[in-house]
Structures
1.
Amino acid sequence: MSEREPELEPEPELYPDLEVHPAKQWAVGVPGILHSMEPALTSMGPARTARLALAINQKNGFDCMSCAWPDPGHRNVLEFCENGMKATTWEATPITVPTSFWAEHSLTSLLEEDEYWLGRQGRLTEPVYKPAASDHYEPISWDAAFRLIADRLNALDSPDRAAFYTSGRTSNEAAFVYQLFVRAFGTNNLPDCSNMCHESTGTALTATIGIGKSTVAYDDFAKADLVIVMGQNPGTNHPRMLTALEETKRNGGRVVSVNVLPEAGLIRYKNPQRVRGIVGKGTAIADRFLQIRSGGDMALLQAVSKRVLDAEDAAPGTVLDHAFLAEHTVGLEALRTHLADLDEAAVLAATGLASHEIDDLAAEYLAADRVIITWAMGLTQHRKAVPTIKEIVNLLLLRGNIGKPGAGASPIRGHSNVQGDRTMGIWERMPERFLAALEAEFGFAVPRAHGADALRTVQGLRDGEIDVFFALGGNFVGAISDTAVAEAAMRGAKLTVQVSTKLNRSHVVTGEEALILPTLGRTEVDLQQGHPQFVSVEDSVCAVHASHGAIPPVAPGLLSEVAIVCRLARATLGERGGADLPGADLPWQDFEDDYDVIRDRISRVVPGFESFNQDVRRKDGFVLPNGPRDERRFDTASGKAVLTVNELEHLDRPPGRLILQTLRAHDQFNTTIYSLNDRYRGIRKGRDVVFVNPDDLAELGLADGQRVDVHSEWRGEPDRVLRNQRIVAYPTARGCAAAYYPEANVLVPLESAAEESNTPVSKAVIVRLVPHAAS
């Protein structure tokens, strides 16, 4: 506890109508249908709802923006999940923010509202500008907005004094022209949402197998003998994945869940597309649940790999895939030597599991010929996230579970095109081969110095090194760690610009000057020069397909993301680069008028897109080449997959403390809050809760229902505090707690980041619970 922490005054409950009910033991079914369609019908009416519902994830429709889960080859008539329909309703609502809103609501008043209220105000339809020293936005013309941004950018002492953020909702075409503009402007400051979620995955997989992407296809789940689901809640975050896991079970495969919390979707799934999901009991998904202590996954994976190696020693030549290991990998003997000394007591302390539970998981793995390991942020947001994911690769490689049907590494992305954005060049550290190809294609000197990622962008704003922050989508302030520090840093900017469909926290925490530029949603028809355009996305299994808007824009005058980027580029750089980029070939107007022109240029820069315009027009799109999956080719320095040695580190929990993780509620997509309910966990009408194991409550002298302040502790710094939370007794792993994101981001220190990937450590925050003073 910090001696500098001031005495806190009591405050009223944020959600006085909060209700706590028993957690659910199954997911989806009829309630999933009702909870998806009722808001849509209420907000949009039957005709608009039907038009959109029949177009989501269809081959001639639009790609759902709620996650990056791949589409099956055979589509159902209604190919969406509950949260997919809610995301569509949220975007396609006919409610708009009127011009009068900006005069009626000061920024000071908007700061008092939560994300839920802000999102419910409706679609943004006109550019607005907050002058310096003003407390209000006011309407501004598009031309004036672009001139203002261009003037501020061109007045900077260095291009590196600007940062350009990207949300994973952005299409391939918009992402490509965006990074092209940013690099033509002269910087690689391209932070994106990957920095905060799956950066650890890309870092680990690239180092070990040569590609930072999944090595499975959609159909592999139906072919797998075993799927190990780690640090992941598909029932809420990507519900259509439950159908793939159901196919695993229907074909005789088994599923093991490794998680800190039991999750309803992994207990039992009632598929609304099947009769048994409507009137029957549905399908039990997880055959085994290992309730692991937060941060213990690396120890578990090492312990299983050791048991596999021990089994090989007991029956030489019968357990490991020796032919695969000899031909395609390096590092086996070093791994074998390292794991020989693995301390079982340290493993049990780190995992909170019993030896027999680890034995059982090893037996499951050894009995399976085809194994998929799939994971999400429960693994990626730890200090040792990168070595943990390297241990996944180790375990898979030992028995040749990469590069064969029904097997592989399967990170599950959250944003619908976050993987495609990276493919298109949205990264502060793109490899030389991409930068050289970009330079050759467009005729200007592409900067090579690494840029700022998400955390370094906040640090740059805080330290006065970045003056302009531009965001193409997303809610950076709401999503990033250490909320108070991040907001103070953003207020230090000279200019902040947000390209958005609806209001969020990032619009009300601004620099001296601020702009909001409204944009088309993915659901809307994009007309350029009278011709409808389409965009494309890449899903979690490297499949690229087109996305076509289905309904007219909610208001006239909205610009697409492509148009916004191209007009900003013309205002800032000139039509083909201007005097500062002589000889550059940057036809921004052509890009805006016809997205085929963008795709033609992508085809000459990005491997796998050589026939982009033709391939994306196929009924099923196309799949990018994937060396490990397609041909057991590994583009590493050695040309082989790398078994790695990783030192086990135990996350210490001091007495009287808990390890807290942030997580989503069910009615939520990233920082977007669809309702105040978390149905599967039994929470209604509120979000100010902290989930704690009943045995930990007894040990700490606290009680279910009690109000507490959650204090996070970090290297002797003053406590960060999330105030007045209701304790909910919940079956978390012992010593662990959970609270909702983004509210609990205030507890995550900015400097607490994963090694190598610099991802915020949002799943391992040391906290203590202090009784809240009576109000």
2.
Amino acid sequence: MTHSDCKIDVQCNNTHHSLESGREEKEHWRLAMKLCSVASLATLLFSLLLLSLFFAFSSAAYNVTYDRRSLIIDGQRKLLISASIHYPRSVPAMWPGLVQTAKEGGIDVIETYVFWNGHELSPGKFYFGGRYDLVKFVKIVQKAGMYLILRIGPFVAGEWNFGGVPVWLHYVPGTVFRTNNEPFKNYMQKFMTFIVNLMKQEKLFASQGGPIIMAQVENEYGDTESIYGDGGKPYAMWAAKMALSQNIGVPWIMCQQYDAPDPVINTCNSFYCDQFNPNSLNKPKMWTENWPGWFKTFGARDPHRPPEDIAYSVARFFQKGGSLQNYYMYHGGTNFGRTSGGPFITTSYDYDAPIDEYGLARLPKWGHLKELHNAIKLCEHALLNSEPTLLSLGPLQEVDIYEDTSGACSAFIANMDDKNDKIIEFRNVSYQLPAWSVSILPDCKKVVFNTAKVGSQTSIAEMVPEKLQPSVTSPAKDLKSLKWEVFVEKAGIWGEADFVRNGFVDHINTTKDTTDYLWYTTSVQVDENEEFLRKGSQPMLLVESKGHALHAFVNQKLQVSASGNGTVSPFKFRSPISLKAGKNEIALLSMTVGLQNAGPYYEWVGAGLTSVKIEGFSNGIKDLSTYTWTYKTGLQGEHLSIYKADGLNNVNWVSTSEPPEKQPLAWYKAVVDAPPGDEPIGLDMIHMGKGLAWLNGEEVGRYWPRKASTHEACVDKCDYRGKFSPNKCSTGCGEPTQRWYHVPRSWFKPSGNILVIFEEIGGDPTQIRFSRRKIKGVCALVSEDHPSFELEPRLEDKATVTLKCPRNSRISSVKFASFGTPTGMCGSYTKGDCHDPDSTSVVEKVCLNKKECAVELTEQNFNKGSCSSTEKKLAVEVVCG
């Protein structure tokens, strides 16, 4: 019998996506067995092998449509929880872990921008390697069995340099960004078509069996459209029409685009979107950016958004008919190199997200949202297959009930009062509602989740410093002395000058963002009889600049540094300087700290000097603004690529075990071992000034331990109740906005790692440290009435404290345990008036030496007789080791 005698006709069309293909796959196997029942065993095995290979290397196309209620995937309505993870803001080695952590957190969809300026480095020259391997990222999402939303844009904003648009495009004659401008539209369409074709080539759209269920064109243009006048609306309509012409087989979205034409779906971006409605009754209610934190700027406070408020916003969105919600960001990551925008956006893009910059779940935020997602998913059928009934339960209390013909019933009870808890009655049952909270009842009876009651454990993370270890292959390796190599740049013009001009040129127009740095140099003559020389006083330097920062050198010595801030880039200063009799060289190093990333006509915002004067001369103020200035773009070390393997020897390094401190314009190089362990790594730059860092040629990014003001408001504990804003719950007053800079583990070799630092101002490189990000302990605080449940097959009644240490560690000791009325926060719990003295021994019995444990708040475990009229809680802190 030949193989052809046993034919298996595999029909691929109209089968479900791999996420739902279990039944279809089993049916194919059953048919194969039946059709081949008369075949020999060898032939059968061969046929089954071919069939398995077919399923391993192909995916069936599936249909994605929508109506007013939700996305519909192969005929099934979908309630979707999405998470933004940007591929260039982490590294390929991290992608599978990030996606898996999101999936474990109850996420269905990964959402990412496509970063035009990271891909099209010059017109028609594309790059998709390393952190920019978009196809690899999408396939990792696909392998995890998750969907993907591709926000092609290609304008992204996103605190990304120049909003994601290539800087070179600004210098194409006649180009104006994001309006009805032919050069811009031409390049935008070419790039979008390139990306779409790349995805089609790899069969990554759902219509081809891939994970991409939606794509986005443009980004948050609705609030800007009118500012562009007659060019605004035609451009938006063109963008929508152009996107639809790509024929990707899945819906297109436009976020914050109030006039998005059918069939493009307009979506909401905000801290709260429960009151948002799309611009057509035929479109579903979608929330593409829910901000669970906020970005940081150098010199500003550290913003935080409480998990209770995030959960409240999400629950309210689904309560009011939402069907897809996306966290921006779920993992913020890192603005490696010079990719941060702003200006002044930090290298860290942690965003206080559920997964932190280093890839670790941020607890309790991640865990609280996971419980929320589980609760919402219990309501999916009723939510998407019925119309809500709204009942008012008070002036700021209401319930939305979803009940379908099959009898399925789910309810969301909201207390919108931001100060007062309330007891309400619903269907003859009393419910206690904390202020600013939503209770979720998947069966319209039992509360399985309340947004204000956080029962998830809290992790205690610390940065464990590791002194830089010299990497020497010799058996006589000296572990005590790290050898540094130093190269100091000349202040001002190195090599040949680029050009000479009377007056000032714009910084960005000159560098075209090939570097942060531009030298402006001139000279001033001082007569030996000048009064300030005779009196020993100092003249004053007066500078005005469009931004962003500046170092002033006189006769090769640093005199003063100045900068704008996170909200205002232009700055001016008045500072004393030292001048000598005769000729004095004035060298001003102008710096950008990320280019403008959003706003109408943002590409025209410039930087650089506008006025330079010196006061204190006998004959009045000297205005240097009209002097002849000599210009040089960038640094010599940059030009010679001395941070890369092939450029390391392009300068004469001076070897020393005692590198100079407080030396401006200094390059430092050291060869070091990787830190021990496998924890994520941060580079501690608290003792340095400002500059750039590289490891093995990879760009760590800008460092600048600039401190936040002590005159602004910071909080020890945030009151989650009431509307959130970025300044509501800030910490870090008087502290550096960013101290540690993420260095991915995958960038390290076991030894022979080349660390290169460029320091602008001066610091102490001997104090540079690697620090391991380590979870040293976990806490939990749960009350007796905390809702707790299992998804299947029953609702669980017992309140439970669950503790889990990170991988490769166990609960080594119980630092604190109290059942009763404990107070405080993780790391500072204290016993209350009511306390069960056996609390510690109970927790130790259940948890000690285990990776994870669950302690139930039952009468068998704890003495509930004392303080019987008081609501009791269990607070626990354990050490992971």
3.
Amino acid sequence: MTASPVSPRPRQLPPRRLLAAAAAFALFGGQAYADPAQKQQAAGPDSTPGRPVGVEASCPLGSFRCAPRPVSYAMCRPNALLEFYDPALTRDSTLRETSNTNVQAQHVDSSDQTVYKLTGQVRIERADQLLHADVAHYNDDTTDYDAQGSVRYQDSGQLMAADHVRGNNEQNRGIADNVSYQLLQSRGNGTATRANMLDAQRTDYTQATFSTCDIGHHLWEIRGKSIKTDKNTGVGVARSATMRFAHVPILYLPYFTFPIDDRRKSGFLTPMIGNTSRAGFMVSTPYYLNLAPNYDATLDPRLYTQRGPMLGGEFRYLLPTSNGILNFEYLPNDRGTYDANDPTAQNTQGDKRWMLHILDSTHLVGPWSLSANINRVSDRNYLRDFGNDMFYNGQVAMLTSSTYINGGGNWWNASFGVDSYQNADPYLPDSIVQYKRWPRATLGLDLPITRWLEFGMDDEAVAFKKDNVVEGKRLDLEPYLAADFRGASWFVRPKLAYRYTAYQLDGGYDQYGYYGRLGGSDTTPFNSRTPSRSLPIASLDSGLVFDRSTSLFGKSYTQTLEPRLYYLYVPYRNQSNLPLFDTNLMSFDYWQLFSPNRYSGADRQMDANNLTAALTTRLLDDNGVERLAASIGQIHYFSTQKVQLPNSNTTVTPPVNWTKSDYVVQLNMQLSDQWRLNTSYQWNPETRLTDLGVLELQRRLGGDGIINFSYRYRRTPGTRQSLLEQYDASAVYPISDRWRALARWTYSVKQRRTVEAMAGFEYDSCCVAFRVLERHYVNGYNYATTDTHTNNAIMFELEFKGLGAFNSQTEDFLHRAILGYQ
């Protein structure tokens, strides 16, 4: 593993979206700041505000998660103020002090040698300033000016139309009457009875409005007794102001601030309101602290009507050698009542309840770095009580925490750290929690000896800890020699490895029953405290690659045909006296055809005398993009599979005399950029039943629509019963350029019930967007009784573009729920 390069200086954190309108009451003395998610193009005659340059309209098909769509003003009407915009004018206001003033007009009255009267298409220009008018008076000595009649003014920060403008060029001051203005760094615009240009950076508007809607068609706006804008700080300040929607006042604030560009500012974040069955009605008013360009914090005070007040928070940092996030939630006194009729309920009344999440990556020295991911809660009911909000996406059964020191170079990688686990599911006993790996060390080597031969090692040393079960330490060493012979159309890769695994079990190991006669009747536990296993592993991987030119549906492709043979030999070793610390049977899939072990972890190494035969064909277009890949393969077993996992600590599983594995078929196809098909299928020749079937279809609709359909089936190994059978369909359907319908439906054939259903719609206009969603979902599963617990939720989100959203939960949920949502 190679350490990442260290940043030479602190970086800036990404912006936070803040809501100005809900933001700063004078009582708190704070500032509210709204950060657009993406900086819009500056308004100009050739740059209609809309999607930023370089942002794709849609993400590629098959993407697990798409980037959020940037705020778009593409549906706004042409800005009338842009008719007199001059793109050739400089944007540097500091040039005013050294620039001359150029004056043009159809008629000039110079009878007064100091004051000039200009009439007819008057144009006064200096640096970034440009003024048009019908009539103007200009004093050449004092640089005072007085312009009347269709006055149009432009500088580096704004466009302005007024009836009358007067001011002084040298002092960069001016007063305009009956004003319409447009900010050039955003879509912010409005009107005012008077605009007082204090200097090159600051303007004070009286009896003013502000909005990002079309000029003259404000669906929402801020009306204030005074509005001040400051380009130095990027902030507008409104006093004695009301927030109006559809001309109806919805909020009055004596003082608050709003954005005029994309810089971060301290202020109140989007308020959140919700309701849960276990915590009651919830109100959250987070406050954002812009502490520095490279670190910030968010305090999130909440009130749960059934549980009491809670304080949450987040701290983010980006340092030259470190970056990370700290999240916490703390409830000092749980006021919730205890339900004695619920066997899974825990009496937490009066308890302190908390959640902690730490994510950190720190460069230490040379190739070494530290990574930490800590997740802890006060009790296993915490996520059920406080995590199942309206759009919480299912239960988390296990919380994993790990901290590691990692290093690596061209031929080696190493790590040392710990892993810990916590049960976060009230329906599961604590006995299911995995062993702590406390500590764990790994070492990987890959040393080239010649051009075609290499020596390597995969080593691990770990101590396992868990209450009321056998504990111990394990050393797993696997040195190997591997060769790689290849040509343009063939390859042969022999590999010889030797695996040695040794244990040192702690006291009481003989009480937990690991037995030595596989498949026999002897139930006398081994008395060895230091069992071990050693065996060689030999494999030979070989293949051919043929290609030819072909055509399909009128398009030319290169087709490949790739036969592959993989032979694996591992002698049998009786391993029933070895404990099971972190080993499970892995799900069988196409890549298991070429794997030296079907078990995860080192506690079991399968015996093998197997030959895998597989065939793959691909279609590559003229640009080398893979448009189709189809594969089929099967393992042929020449000997009985003796190494099996026990059914329990006292039941030994007998050997399995397989002749052949499942036939495994895969097909991935994307012949165009509009649709994609993925399938997997496994058929068992012994039982003549389907063990696995997966079908995934994705279809692009225009630039922002998508349809997904999938079917998943898996049979319980060794039985005729299905383990899982589900249908899943989701869609983003564009009804028009403003409306999109959203839906998802997941149905379980095995349970004969809907697992999840969601429906809603989105509306997007020039300056307002909103989203309404309704969701029905399973939020709990009792593994003992197989009972499910469901919930229904409705969410409404309203966004005033340029200010922020009233609720941001729905967007994250939709990214998870609908593949390809953007």
